[in-house]
Specification:
The complex is a heterodimer of chains A (383) and B (282).
Chain A (H helix, E strand, L loop, with lengths): L8 E6 H11 L2 E6 L6 H10 L6 E4 L3 H13 L3 E6 L1 H17 L3 E9 L5 E5 L4 H6 L8 E3 L4 H18 L2 E7 H5 L1 E6 L43 E3 L13 H16 L2 H4 L2 E4 L6 E5 L2 H15 L4 E6 L1 E3 L3 H8 L4 E6 L5 H9 L4 E6 L8 H12 L1
Parallel strand pairs in A: 2-3, 2-4, 4-5, 5-8, 7-8, 12-13, 12-15, 15-16
Antiparallel strand pairs in A: 1-9, 5-6, 7-14, 11-13
Chain B lengths: L30 H15 L6 E5 L7 H4 L3 E4 L5 H11 L4 E7 H7 L1 H10 L3 E7 L34 H8 L3 E6 L3 H13 L3 E7 L3 H7 L5 H11 E3 L16 E8 L5 H12 L6
Parallel strand pairs in B: 1-2, 1-3, 3-4, 4-6, 5-6, 7-8
Antiparallel strand pairs in B: 5-8
Helix pairs in contact in B: 1-7, 4-5, 5-6
The chains are: A alpha/beta (383), B alpha/beta (282).
Chain lengths: 383, 282
């Protein structure tokens, strides 16, 4: 264990455990949650690990309370997190909205299962992708990322905390049951404290401090409870002082900034991987566990002489519009396999426009795609 | 130790965000006097105001956090207690007070209320009970007395209300009290005592809502409610909370019903940390 009490070394662990350890490496010291398959192992791991390192693990009475407690803990200065799956994710939408409105750094992990409703608790799904974007009411931007392996969920959980602290926004890890429950080798590097981002703090006196006075990157320094700033924050529309103002002009200024602080920093936020993309004219665009299966399908297509490539979306929200637009002038078609009946495909289609065809390869959940299904779609598009 | 206060000198102005006044509360409302008692209680408790975190939910009482110059959080409907739970668990040094209404705390937030009491987390909950949803215009709620008129119970409320002190006591709260807004001295002392006491404390404040609950239930002026409280209140410290339920037009039993010592959630968490580090046996 490193001096920051995070694990360092190579471990054979599940995605859920890797997620918990990534959080600890990122400096997370507060976890509030509620048991739900297939995310429970994250809570279990945190309940063992956090008390060892003077962190707090608490099981709340439901997911409404879990998300609220995570926000409270963040305002008291702890890097905080919760983890859930579809039904719990629905309940968390309420306080996710409060987190966005108060600009509260925190991380929310969704280990997706088959859905809607109770669906397939122990089996894979990717049906929450649009919910991550639009699930809480209102116009806002959110950051969400999808890992395709235990290693990626470990790495991305650290990234999630950093982005959340930097932009004062809840960041969502949109994983799935397959990644959460598969065990693989995970390399947990020493994460130097100076490589971690912590929210910017006010340098002015309490008299001068205005909680929502943005800096150049549209983010405001954040005071914490108990430091003497005597600040007010509210879920109501508020001005730079944090005071509620029922006024169309203030509403305009606030909502634009909440959205724009993500949009203007998009290049810092967006992450993706590409395989065989340079001369590809059929591009499979996939995320999470489906990206790994898609990679196999691309390899099989190449063996048949089809110029196929893979675009793995890692950052899902904000959507990587620029890359899809650029690739759409090179490629004939985008193949979008996802474990739902078509969500991210709508975004791909929007960005590709008329320049390239967009083909959905849906799978309703309970298992992953077979590579042959995706290969068949690639063949079809290449004819 | 609760200190005596020289009322001549004390002014609540230093605790108010004066640039936010005037407030939104109606003439005769009991929320203002309750907030006043809270500020005086801070002064009497000797707690450093910089260490106090004030959390409110949604509704008329939910607006308290906005007017008081402390670190203050106006959260989502019903979720003040879990938000406050996060604050307290993440920073043990904070003195956390939840100030909200009966609908917010006992209806939409009812589950959080009983679980916070069960956990015995160190926080003080001040519940202003005006028997009605005021902010939305006067609908019935879980504290509306049977047969009372509201905008959604024109023929009389057909549900029985919660007896909040009984609910909280049964849920494990080690400190439970109730006063009305004519018992301002007692209320002030009770809030100070609750803020100093480790563990969970629940204070119910029976409060007038003249333009809605009062108007529809024969107390159209704030003063009518105050006369009613004066006439019908019976102080019974230590009374069995089971016996303090309220009926429309009936007596209001007030006092400190529960005040017992028991280990707090924080005490248990410290033990757990020691066990996790191998410092003590599981």
């Amino acid at each position: 264990m490193a001096e920051n009490q995070a694990l360092v070394g190579e471990y054979f662990v599940s995605g859920d455990v890797a997620c918990a350890e990534g959080a600890i490496s990122a400096g997370c010291r507060f976890f509030a949650g509620y048991p739900i398959t297939p995310a429970t192992e994250i809570a279990e791991r945190m309940s063992i690990r956090l008390p060892q390192i003077d962190g707090v693990y608490i099981q709340m009475e439901d997911e409404l309370a879990s998300m609220a407690a995570v926000l409270g803990a963040s305002w008291a200065g702890k890097k905080s997190m919760t983890a859930t799956s579809g039904p719990g994710f629905s309940l968390m939408m309420e306080n996710l909205g409060l987190g966005i409105m108060l600009e509260t750094p925190c991380v929310l992990v969704n280990i997706q299962r088959g859905d809607p409703s109770t669906g397939l608790p122990t089996m894979v799904g990717q049906g929450g992708m649009m919910q991550a974007r639009w699930g809480s009411h209102g116009s806002y931007e959110i950051i969400a990322m999808s890992p395709s392996s235990p290693q990626e969920i470990f790495d991305l959980t650290i990234v999630a905390f950093n982005l959340s602290e930097k932009y004062r926004v809840p960041v969502i890890i949109m994983s799935d049951e397959a990644v959460g429950h598969m065990s693989e080798k995970v390399v947990m590097p020493y994460v130097a404290p100076e490589s971690l981002i912590t929210r910017q703090r006010p340098v002015v006196s309490p008299e001068e401090y205005r909680p929502y006075q943005p800096e150049a990157n549209l983010v405001s320094p954040m005071a914490l409870a108990g430091e003497g700033y005597r600040f007010h924050v509210t879920g109501l529309t508020h001005d730079e002082r944090g005071y509620p103002v029922m006024d169309a002009e203030v509403q305009d200024r606030l909502v634009r900034r909440l959205v724009d602080k993500i949009r203007v920093n998009i290049n810092d936020i967006i992450r993706y991987k590409e395989v065989e993309i340079d001369n590809a004219d059929i591009i499979v665009c996939a995320y999470g566990i489906t990206a790994r299966i898609a990679q196999m399908a691309v390899k099989m297509a190449r063996e048949e002489g089809i110029r196929a490539g893979l675009l793995q979306l890692i950052t899902i929200w904000p959507f990587n519009e620029e890359r899809i637009r650029k690739l759409s002038s090179q490629a004939r078609a985008f193949i979008v396999p996802e474990i739902n009946y078509g969500q991210i495909v709508l975004e791909v289609e929007r960005c590709a426009g008329d320049r390239a065809r967009t083909v959905l390869v849906p799978h309703m959940g309970g298992s992953v795609h077979s590579p042959q299904t995706i290969l068949e779609a690639i063949r079809e598009a290449s004819r | 130790m609760i200190k005596e206060m020289n009322t001549e000198i004390f002014s609540i102005e230093k605790y108010l965000r004066q640039d936010r006044l005037p407030h939104i509360w109606c003439p005769g409302c009991g929320i203002g006097p309750t907030a006043n008692c809270f500020l005086r209680a801070i002064e009497r408790s000797n707690i450093d105001p910089d260490r106090i975190a004030l959390v409110s939910g949604i509704g008329c009482t939910g607006r308290v956090a906005g007017y008081i110059k402390l670190d203050s959080f106006h959260t989502t409907h019903g979720r003040a207690i879990p938000f406050a739970t996060g604050l307290k668990l993440a920073n043990e040094e904070l003195n956390v007070v939840v100030f909200s209404g009966d609908g917010d705390l006992a209806a939409i937030g009812g589950n959080h209320l009983i679980h916070a009491a069960r956990r015995n987390i160190d926080m003080t909950v001040i519940c202003v009970n005006n028997f009605i949803y005021g902010m939305t215009g006067g609908q019935a709620g879980p504290t509306t007395p049977f047969e009372a008129r509201t905008t959604t119970s024109r023929y009389g409320c057909f549900e029985d209300p919660f007896n909040l002190p009984y609910l909280l006591s049964a849920s494990g709260s080690p400190y439970v009290a109730r006063w009305t807004t004519i018992h301002l001295r007692q209320l002030e002392k009770t809030i100070a005592e609750a803020m100093i006491k480790p563990g969970f404390s629940f204070i119910e404040v029976i409060s007038p809502c003249p333009p809605i609950f009062g108007r529809m239930n024969k107390q159209p002026q704030g003063l009518d409610s105050m006369h009613y409280y004066q006439e019908k209140s019976v102080i019974r410290n230590g009374e069995d909370p089971k016996e303090v339920g309220m009926e429309l037009g009936g007596p209001i039993i007030v006092g400190k019903f529960v005040d017992k010592e028991c280990p707090t959630l924080q005490d248990h968490l410290l033990q757990v940390c020691d066990r996790a580090k191998g410092k003590s046996k599981t």
